[in-house]
Amino acid sequence: MNFAIPPMGLLPALDDHCLLCEQPASTPLCHICLQDAPRLPDLTPRQGSGLQTAHITTLYAMAPYQWPWSYLVQRFKFSGCRAAGRALTFGFRQRLLEQIEPLPRGIVPVPLHPWRQARRGFNQAGVMAAELANQCGIKYYPNLVTRRRNTRPQHQLDASQRRGNLHNGFDVECPVALNHIALLDDVVTTGATINAVAAALKAQQPSLQIDVWALTLTVNSSAMGS
Ligand SMILES: [Zn+2]
Asked: What sections of the protein cross the membrane (predicted)?
């Protein structure tokens, strides 16, 4: 499907109703819609889940990439619907945040390709990372990891070239005093991107503890640990 939508930045949205059922609510999703939305087991994926997590300390994933989460991700990304982004971070806070102990010192968004960010007008992971950082009282690091502009398109490469392309595709500026971060992404599929970002961070700072905060995960939930 071609989402050829021009960059529009973030659209304002009303905050007095549930984004899904449109009933009056003081939160982005009402408690019924939140309760009905699918969740993942409370544990993080283990060996054998198929995810690439070698450089990641712990992966916290809120929900499978299914309705309504997939709808909210798409509305936020492709239509700039700010309320959909707030609904995602609201779900993350309600479902996962209190289980995360200790909290990291800062949150880092997975960077978009510069051309994609220019076209979309914003990085959805960055917006959600900033919001969660503010709510958690921890620091937001928007530029700690950036993508190199000259990275070759993934579809032009074979499997090993792809891994190298990702591994070499990021620039990192990590403060020496920083010892624990969360890397935030809206959709984690194979883990290749988050793992490559983590590898780039570890190359500069080997002792860095890197948790991943994934809003959604596309792997089969039966692959989760128990
Ligand atoms: Zn609702």
From this structure: none
* 22, part of any domain: no
Give 186 Cα–ligand 1 centroid separation in angstroms. 21
Indicate the SS3 state at residue 143. Answer: coil
| Rounded Cα–Cα distance for residues 89 and 135 (Å) | 10
Window from 71-80, 132-141, 154-163, 199-208 with minimum mean pLDDT: 154-163
Domain-embedded: residue 165: yes
Q: Which residues of 146-165 are buried (b: 16+ CB within 10 A; e: fewer)?
A: ebeeeeeeeeeeeeeebbeb
Instruction: Tell me, in angstroms, the distance from the centre of ligand 1 to residue 35's CA.
Output: 9
Cα–Cα distance, 47 to 192 (Å, whole number): 15
Write down the pTM of the prediction.
0.84
Residue 150: pLDDT band with limits 50, 70, 90: low
Does residue 183 sit within a domain?
yes
- Tens digits of per-residue pLDDT, 113-125? 888 888 899 999 9
Lowest mean per-residue pLDDT among 61-65, 150-154, 204-208? 150-154
* Domain count along the chain: 1
Q: Evaluate whether residue 132 is within a structural domain.
A: yes
Domain that holds residue 210: 39-223
User: Average pLDDT, stretch 86-104?
Assistant: 92
- Report which of 200, 130, 198, 145 is spatially closest to residue 168, judged by C-alpha positions: 200
CATH code, 51: 3.40.50
69: CA distance to ligand 1 center in Å? 13
Query: 126 CA to middle of ligand 1, Å?
Result: 26
